[in-house]
Amino acid sequence: MYTPGPVNLLGLNAGLNGQARTSLGFFLGVGLAMLVLFVVFGWAGAAWVRGDMLAVVGALGCGYILYLAIKIARSSIDLGAVRQAPRVLRLRDGLIMQLCNPKGMIATLPIATIQFPAAGIHGVSLLLWSLGLAVLAVGAPGSYALMGAVAGRRIENPRILTGFSLAMSVLLAGVSVSIGYEHVWLPLATGAG
After folding, report:
1. Largest CA distance in the chain
2. Which in 89, 160, 168, 181 has the greatest CB count within 10 A?
3. Is the pLDDT at 161 greater than 70, yes or no?
């Protein structure tokens, strides 16, 4: 959950742009999505998950990540009294992005369908474990935002922040293409052949 990925890069960018506090809803949306994935996969199991569904959800996730990358690339930085980019990430953004993130599903699916049952985690304990892991998921982009906020306070030149936002948007676009290739294109290509 704490490795650099689209959600954490957006958290870092929010911190750099002085939006760590206003993006709290985004972080909570990420955690809520992880809670939903853990609970649904834990209760429903692998029976509901089909390979072709993952490719469709992955394509949607790639499109949303690319959309956010474009929004970040187009944002402007104002170093007045409060640094603020035009688009603040909200709970909905975190929820949609993480629900459509194939890597989020790949992380939760084996835990919920293999490790939880092997450890005898079911019923109420499944919900408690899922809540605990969801709290950890909130902390991932939150910690990146905190790092960005600390670094952002030391940057006085708006060109540097604008350059960093552009770099973040390029990285997000790269992540979108990478996820699209690994989790959409390859499964569809190997399934067709």
Report:
1. 58
2. 89
3. yes
